[in-house]
């Protein structure tokens, strides 16, 4: 009965002896109970070529770390020759029982590697290797046949201006590809992998990254580039609103209360009015009534956003012409300079009327990427980091 009980845990073996070790550990010595099975074909092979003892970690037993010592035999199989015997609960070259490996995989779904390694008393590299193998095994193969629209963006990989590029399906929100860098050469492997499916891509949303733009045009002849509202409005805030605000503050050196009001108005001017409290909205209205240049750039910011809400490219073009005219007539150098730099990207802005895409999907992905990176206190293996990101965004079913 006792022999059968241990067979439930360690098939083919029984307990020979056990010994308590220091620091809450327990060592159990196992011996084989029958003939070995060939590791190649699984047939019984009673003739033993040689035996080696192996030390193996298993799941903790209550509050004790559990170590096993067992004989691992190489058997003579009539069909396969000399092979290591098959052990149902232990991998061929492993020193961790399958039960412990499964526990590591389960914990890595919810905890950082460092915490799992510390909790189980394993090496960081061992835990990473197990989780990386799980991710590679569980990630489904990519199917590009129904792919029509893409979104492309970049995120900070490490400190020191090191970036990675991420490409996702705009419709399912599945992360398709991640690579280090943000140059044409960095994203080219994705389009090479896409191959003949490049011809079916209709639209690609991105920020004003000329490398992404050129690479899409080189590989996807039928794709329309769509420039993202979020990035352009953010750039407008930096290059126009902030610059005009600083200029107006400098012009009010003699009027200290008015100068302080302008200097402290940055977030009032950059936020959407819908996100302001009643008190903040009142302060904004008062500021705009007293400072015409700030009122002008604020109103033009809202009108610029309307370009992405037009029902057709033609109506968007008419709105653009009106916006361009007001920008040129404003007399504000930062606004005029921004409008001139924006003009070459007009086609990609107007394309948003046909393809209402934006990279807000990737902004949400980037926020979760930061959480993944922060939980692990950074990643030493970028391939493993990219697998974690892909696993976190498998996409929604169509």
Summarize the structure.
The chain is α/β, with parallel strands linked by helices.
Provide an overview of this structure.
This protein has helices spanning 2-9, 98-108, 113-120, 124-138, 184-194, 210-219, 229-251, 256-263, 266-270, 278-290, 292-305, 313-329, 333-342, 346-350, 360-375, 382-392, and strands spanning 13-21, 25-32, 36-37, 44-45, 48-61, 64-77, 81-84, 149-158, 162-169, 175-180, 203-206, 224-227. The protein is α/β, with parallel strands linked by helices. It folds into four domains: 2-95, no CATH class; 103-136; 149-228 and 357-392, 2-Layer Sandwich (Nucleotidyltransferase, domain 5), CATH 3.30.420.10; 229-353. The strands form three sheets. Strands 1, 2, 5, 6 and 7 form a five-stranded mixed sheet that branches. Strand 8 and strand 9 (162-169) form a beta hairpin. It is elongated and about 95 Å long.
Q: Indicate the mean pLDDT.
A: 89
Proportion of strand residues:
15-25%
- Extended strand count: 12
- Number of domains as seen in the coordinates: 4
Number of helices: 16
Tell me roughly what share of residues is in helical segments. Answer: 40-55%
How does the SSE layout of this entry go?
Layout: H1 2-9, E1 13-21, E2 25-32, E3 36-37, E4 44-45, E5 48-61, E6 64-77, E7 81-84, H2 98-108, H3 113-120, H4 124-138, E8 149-158, E9 162-169, E10 175-180, H5 184-194, E11 203-206, H6 210-219, E12 224-227, H7 229-251, H8 256-263, H9 266-270, H10 278-290, H11 292-305, H12 313-329, H13 333-342, H14 346-350, H15 360-375, H16 382-392
Parallel strand pairs: 2-6, 8-11, 11-12
Antiparallel strand pairs: 1-2, 3-4, 5-6, 6-7, 8-9, 9-10
Helix pairs in contact: 2-4, 3-4, 4-16, 5-6, 7-8, 7-11, 10-11
């Amino acid at each position: 009965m006792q022999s059968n009980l241990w067979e439930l845990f360690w098939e083919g073996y029984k307990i020979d002896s056990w010994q308590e070790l220091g620091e809450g550990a327990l060592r159990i010595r196992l011996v084989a109970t029958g003939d070995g099975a060939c590791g190649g074909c699984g047939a019984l092979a009673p003739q033993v070529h040689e035996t080696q003892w192996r030390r193996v970690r298993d799941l903790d037993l209550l509050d004790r770390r559990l170590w096993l010592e067992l004989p691992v035999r190489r058997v003579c199989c009539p069909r396969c020759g000399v092979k290591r015997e098959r052990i149902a609960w232990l991998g061929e070259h492993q020193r961790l029982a399958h039960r412990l490996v499964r526990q590591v995989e389960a914990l890595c779904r919810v905890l950082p590697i460092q915490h799992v390694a510390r909790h189980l008393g394993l090496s960081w590299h061992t835990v990473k290797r197990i989780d990386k193998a799980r991710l590679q095994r569980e990630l489904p193969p990519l199917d590009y046949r129904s792919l029509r629209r893409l979104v492309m963006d970049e995120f900070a990989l490490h400190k020191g201006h090191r970036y990675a590029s991420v490409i996702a399906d705009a419709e399912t929100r599945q992360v398709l590809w991640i690579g280090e860098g943000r140059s044409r050469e960095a994203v080219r492997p994705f389009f090479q992998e896409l191959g003949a499916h490049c011809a079916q891509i209709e639209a690609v949303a991105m920020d004003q990254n000329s490398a992404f733009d050129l690479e899409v045009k080189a590989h996807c002849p039928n794709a329309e580039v769509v420039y993202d509202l979020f990035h352009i409005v953010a750039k407008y805030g930096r290059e126009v609103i902030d610059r005009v605000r600083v200029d107006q503050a400098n012009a009010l050196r003699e009027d200290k209360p008015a100068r302080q009001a302008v200097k402290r108005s940055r977030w009032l001017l950059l936020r959407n009015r819908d996100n302001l409290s009643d008190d903040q909205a009142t302060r904004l209205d008062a500021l705009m009534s007293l400072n015409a240049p700030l009122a002008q750039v604020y109103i033009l910011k809202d009108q610029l956003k309307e370009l992405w809400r037009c029902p057709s490219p033609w109506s968007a073009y008419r709105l653009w012409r009106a916006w361009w005219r007001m920008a040129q007539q404003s007399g504000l150098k930062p606004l005029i300079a921004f409008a001139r730099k924006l003009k070459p990207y007009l086609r990609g802005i107007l394309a948003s009327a046909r393809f209402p895409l934006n990279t807000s999907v990737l902004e949400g992905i980037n926020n979760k990427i930061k959480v993944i990176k922060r939980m692990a206190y950074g990643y030493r293996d970028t391939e493993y980091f990219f697998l974690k990101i892909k696993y976190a965004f498998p996409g929604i079913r169509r």
